Amino acid sequence: MISFIQKGDFSNLTNFLERAKEVIHLGDLNKYGRAGVEALAAATPKDTGKTASSWYYKIENKDGSASISFHNSNIQNDVPIAIILQYGHGTGTGGWVEGRDYINPSIQPIFDEIADSAWKEITKR
């Protein structure tokens, strides 16, 4: 026969998760949004500079959670220029222009900073 005995409750876990939910505030997300746009603009390959200057961010609050997303408004002939710079594209003459991974390396430090900041805030008690 196997038996289990459990003493206590999950109040510590519940408190931890409640603190985690409240850690990143709207003002912090705006700070990270501005930093992300700066990083993306600096890393974007430049010809005219239009794509680099077309980055923006959105913060969405929904169902008790917040998210931040980054976008680029430079779209020509229904083609998002930032994306073809990232992944590459065909030319009108049958050639191929290789993409350059500039988005991920430029934005990753911002996401790391958000995660580090949240973790420090959650675990400081």
Number of domains: 1
Order of helices and strands: HHEEEEHEEH
Task: Please state the structural category.
Answer: alpha+beta
The share of residues in helices is 40-55%
What integer is the average pLDDT?
85
Uncertain ranges: none
Number of strands: 6
Q: What is the distance, rounded to the nearest whole angstrom, between the alpha carbons of the first and last residues?
A: 41 Å
**Order of neighbouring strands in the sheet with most strands:** 1-2
Amount of beta strand:
15-25%
Radius of gyration: 21 Å
C-alpha geometry: elongated
Largest sheet: 2 strands, antiparallel
Instruction: Count every helix, treating DSSP H or I runs of 4 or more residues as helices.
Output: 4
Annotation keywords:
single chain; 125 residues; alpha+beta; two-stranded antiparallel ribbon; 4 helices; 6 strands; 46% helix
Describe the structure concisely for a colleague.
This protein has one domain (11-123). 46% of the residues lie in helices and 21% in strands. The protein is built from four helices and six strands, in the order ααββββαββα.
Describe it for me?
With 125 residues, the protein is α+β, with helices and mostly antiparallel strands. The chain has one domain (11-123). It contains 4 helices and 6 strands, in the order ααββββαββα. It has helices at 11-22, 26-43, 81-87, 103-123; strands at 55-62, 65-72, 75-76, 79-80, 88-90, 96-98. Strands 1-2 form a two-stranded antiparallel ribbon. A hairpin with a 5-residue loop joins strand 5 (88-90) and strand 6 (96-98). Helix 1 crosses helix 4 (103-123) and helix 2 packs antiparallel against helix 4 (103-123). The longest helix has 21 residues, at 103-123. The chain is elongated.
